[in-house]
Design brief:
There is one protein chain. The chain is 52% helix and 0% strand. It has 83 residues and is an all-alpha fold. The longest helix has 23 residues.
Amino acid sequence: MAISDILASIDHDLAKLQQAKAVLSGVAAPVAKRKPGRPKKVVVAAPAVEKPAKKKRKLSAEGRKRIAEAVKKRWAAQKAGVK
């Protein structure tokens, strides 16, 4: 075994022992640094409280007729080349 392999093995063992010590003492283990780049997506649980359903708005027959006429007028103007 090369010296660099032995040192890498020792470093690995030290990291494991430090994590075990942190778990046993109740302290959170140190967070390893992440590679640069886009962070991973965090999934958040949906809240348990449900929102009440919104009431649908109703359009009167007169309102529908006005909208239909306006749309027809707009399309006629566009077809004629006038904006």
